[in-house]
User: Fold Allantoin permease from Phaeosphaeria nodorum.
Amino acid sequence: MGKFDMASRHRMTAPFQSKDAFLNFVKAPQGNEGHATIGDTKWSNKDLEPTPEEHRTWTWYNLPLYWFSNKFSLVGWNTGASLVTIGLTWQQSFVSACIGSFLAAIVVVLMARPGVKYHIGFPVLARSVMGMYGSYFFVFIRAIVCIIWYGIQTFYAGNLLSVMLRCIFGNSWKNFGNTLPVRANVNSKQLLTFFMAWLLEFPFVSDNACRMNK
Assistant:
């Protein structure tokens, strides 16, 4: 099985040493190691080609554990809390959340079938529906959704960090000064913990998913 490798300091700072280093960092490699590049390099790269067999390291228990961790998150807990807030009992909220998750799981499983069979990702699958250029629209929408979702998760993580820091530093953190105007709708403490949470997340998103199954 693969092994998750925590990114080193040099690996994380190398892309910011120069403009060329940054461009090389954001550019996807052409072809997987040991495999010939498929098709035109304009439309194919390492991330778009079918996953090589040696990278298919996730087994029957990895995916359920991943989805469990995905739902057992801040947003997952907020689902039940939000339902209680609008007037449902905790029993009704629990049943509603289970039904909603079950219906969503059906859609997820159906959408995952092409990936399981052909080992391709969403951007490539979108081409079969809308063509090479039309797929850009769906990729763009998916990117926007990911940015929003990632921001929400990081915001919640920042709030948790704020609670932790308040427990550690007490009134010193509680009375942390705010230098932002009211119209910003965020204070300095929230912004600081947001970026702290963001930095903590970087090492975990810098490695390939095939090495995160342990």
About this structure: The first helix runs from residue 9 to 13. DSSP finds eight helices and no strands in the chain. Residues 131-213 form one domain. The CA atoms of residues 52 and 198 lie 31 Å apart.
